[in-house]
Amino acid sequence: MAPSLHPLLDNGLTKGSDSFSGGTLRCRCSNNKVEVKLDGNVLHNHACGCSQCWKPSGAVFSVVGVIPDDKVKVIANENKLEVVNKDATILRNACKECGVHMYGPIHKDHPFKGLTFVHAELSDEKGWQEPQFAAFVSSIIEQGYDPKSMGDVRSKLKSVGLEPYDCLSPALMDAMATWTAQKSGVLKANI
Ligand SMILES: N[C@@H](CCC(=O)N[C@@H](CSCO)C(=O)NCC(=O)O)C(=O)O
Ligand SMILES: [Zn+2]
Ligand SMILES: [Zn+2]
Questions:
Q1: H-helix or E-strand containing 140?
Q2: What residues contact 13, with CB distance under 8 A and at least 6 apart?
Q3: What domains can be seen in the chain, in order of their start residue?
Q4: ipTM of this model?
Q5: Is 50 tagged catalytic?
Q6: Which bound ligand lies closest to the C-alpha atom of 100?
Q7: Residues with Cβ within 5 Å of ion ligand 3?
Q8: Atom of ligand 1 at shortest distance to CA of 62?
Q9: Which residue, by CA, sits nearest to atom 6 of ligand 1?
């Protein structure tokens, strides 16, 4: 039987809408929910198998995308948020009560500085960009997934149209490497 990976992946992807203008993320508390308004769609949405990204209970993968920092606004119960790991690149702000990660900006010098990581599934609105690829697939083994089942996991991801990678996608890895090369001076600033 095909493995269950995440509710948004298991039965095929739901295509997003090009004209979608955003929505509000809500944490999983039954009352006094933290609310984060996103003024636009997510970009580079992807399945992530890493140990740091938030997953709904029972899911093997997270689904996470990015959005420019200036399109993210906490509109309710900000006092319930705390940063999970202040040393991480992504400063994941989680609800102290239900544990859901509400938004994760990057403050240090980094190719993705200016982008905030978010989980669009925390919103009721429809039209969010569908996942584009699967990242950090081998990382699920670090969390206890049976290494012998990785063939089935990668086949399942491919069957729903997600190319599995063990880091980010080649396009994003190239963008990060270009930023690094330009920062060190190995490449010209404008190429
Ligand atoms: N094997 C590790 C990988 C963790 C990792 O590098 N995660 C990536 C992807 S998160 C969303 O794409 C990353 O960029 N992390 C930076 C950060 O989390 O701050 C593991 O599983 O933990
Ligand atoms: Zn909560
Ligand atoms: Zn991750």
A1: helix 139-142
A2: 130, 131, 160, 161, 162
A3: 7-184 (3.90.1590.10)
A4: 0.98
A5: yes
A6: 2
A7: 48, 50, 53
A8: 11
A9: 50
In the residue annotation, 53 being an active-site residue is answered as: yes
* Residue type for position 27: C
Of the ligands numbered here, which is closest to the C-alpha atom of 86? 1
pLDDT at site 1: 87
CA separation for the pair 9, 14 (Å, rounded): 9
| Residue 175 structure tokens | 């963008």
- pLDDT tens digit sequence for 66-107: 999 999 999 999 999 999 999 999 999 999 999 999 999 999
Would you give the DSSP letter of residue 69? Answer: G
Ligand 2 centroid vs 26 CA: distance in angstroms? 8
| pLDDT at residue 190, rounded to an integer | 78
Binding residues for Zn(2+): 27, 29, 48, 50, 53, 95, 98
Question: Is a pLDDT exceeding 90 seen at residue 30?
Answer: yes
**3-state SS string for 1-60:** CCCCCCHHHHCCCCCCCCCCCCEEEECCCCCCCCEEEECCCCEEEEEECCCCCCCCCCCC
83 close to 102: Cβ distance less than 8 angstroms: no
| Mean of pLDDT values over 123-151 | 98
Pocket test for ligand 1, best of 46, 89, 136 (most atoms within 8 A of CB): 136
Q: How far is the CA of 19 from the centre of ligand 1 (A)?
A: 30
pTM: 0.97
